[in-house]
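Job type: complex structure
Entries:
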Amino acid sequence: MSTPIVVEQLTKRFGKFEAVKDVSFTAPGGAITALLGPSGSGKSTVLRMIAGLETPNDGHIRMGDVELTAKSVQERRVGFVFQHFALFRHMTVADNVAFGLAVRKQPKDVKNQRVEELLELVQLAPFAKRYPDQLSGGQRQRVALARALAPRPDVLLLDEPFGALDAKVRQDLRHWLDGLHRELGVTSLLVTHDQEEALELANQIVVMHEGRVEQVGSPAEIYDDPATPFVAGFVGSANVLHGEVRDGHVHLGSVRVAGAAHLADGAPATAFVRPHDVRVRQKGGQANERDGDFTATIERIASLGWLARLTLRLADGHTLVAHVPQEELDGAKEGDTVTLDLRNPKAFLREVHGADPDEVDADAEIDVPPSDRATAGTA
Amino acid sequence: MSAYPQTAEPAHTTDLPGTGRRRLVRAGIVTLCFLYVGVLLLLPLIGIVWTALEAGLDKIVETFQRPDVQHAFFLTAVITAITLVVTTFFGVITAWVLVRQRFPGKSLLNALVDLPFALSPVTVGLACAILFGLGGWLYEFFDARGIKILFAVPSMVLVTIFICIPFTIREVVPVLQEIGKDEEDAARTLGASILQTWRKVTMPNIRWGLLYGVALTTARSIGEIGAVLIVSGLIKGKTETATLFIFTAIEERQTTEAYIVAITLAAVSIVLLVTIEAARRRIEGRKVRT
């Protein structure tokens, strides 16, 4: 039950539109891999190609050692869960779950036993004789999951499985799915646009954007060490600061990040700062006391329990959102000036080429050594 | 003790200016609809029923025993049966292709399907006559093989099929669109073949739309006259359908016979539609009950 899925250089075109461009990744056996990206990033198309519901224009899909690309849908042994459940509306819950066994001509007693087993597993045994339209959304998705698992698929493919459910149900079902996966250990591929869902459920995340893979990594790698500006901006909330390179530093308004010595002056740069990576060092504006400090005025304080969300106005007029523990505030109020520093600024250099100054060609990442962090300065 | 400032008066809708007039207009429109449907639809029907029954049971029995009447009903049944088989089979496939497939010329096919709605049946009949008549494009081919198309049953079947093409397709297309592709995809991933998916998922989902299409096709096929009139050649006892019998009977001043046959045709169509509606309600009702 732990077959890895290998996707190699997968490409899919719809007419002239290239939905998936040269996508490669491996979903390790027995793990949950999340395909994360905004709508239109091609993640569902990748999933549908793995299932055989779409035919790739180029590339390969393997499941373990088995080449899948030329196989038909029904030969692939995948379990597929749809966003809108896709239950057979004219069949009872039990018949829905039995479908995959019935079309494979399983004997009746084997079929009934498996259906019972799965309805038990998804805690819907008393609903066996109901029709899909007599169930709630969360129940329907559990039936869909039981139906997908019934023929013992090699892999489980989930296409935005919680997308059509309301927040509370989504949360419950997510925890429940996590537990179920630990129990079954079936290789799972989860398509989602919800980064929280991906971070919580997945062992590995594949971030997709405009048909390409932006980054493959563990949730921690994706969150703490984003490979591209897109990943930094899409996964987790982040302040985006724009600036340019000058004297080997990246100047982002009044905030200065060191470590760009090898770069020519005038190159545009973008930095991503997570709200919880902004630290309040002390009340009052005594900047330049330490390298890396800078000052800002508190515009607004919103209390989020033990955390406070600060809206800060930098010296150059830009705003910065910070999440800081209440005690770090040290009684600072709206309108006060505070000294701040950044824990983990992530700066990306945008190299502009050609005649069109807006066209971004390559993203070069600037690694900022922890000892040489943001430097205050007046721009 | 209200917390709200006392600025908003409770609304007296009946006192608002123009309300009475609006109500009058609405009543007028509803009356108009009833008059429209009642006078134009119900009154002629009642008239036919009245005239047919007035003649007495003897006359009715006598009419049904006439060989030309019996043959006319038989021919109508044959044409309708063939039309049903053809339009259902190709209609479902065409509807599925129109909804599920992407291909160049799709909108053209979509527009062509509606062509019979736009064309006058007489035009259809004429086109058929030109095609298969003496000197027509296809005349030589069939004549050489001794097959008679025009002024014979084959051309009558052909024009009826042509006219009935849109009904099944237009009933099934919206149903297919509404249920979407997901259930079919789900069946495929669960290991069902294309045929199994079709039989176990697609067909049960579209059955009511399809049945309505079949009912409309039957009603239209039974009632068709314009196109059939042109291609039939009106050969008594050979190419005379029930509607053509009515047509000639009126010309020959056998009004009562015409009415009796007409009311029979109307009854068949009405019974058909009512039965399907009743069956649908019953089955849907059973499903919803827990």
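Summary: Chain A touches chain B through 32 residues (CB under 8 Å). Chain A has nine helices and 22 strands.
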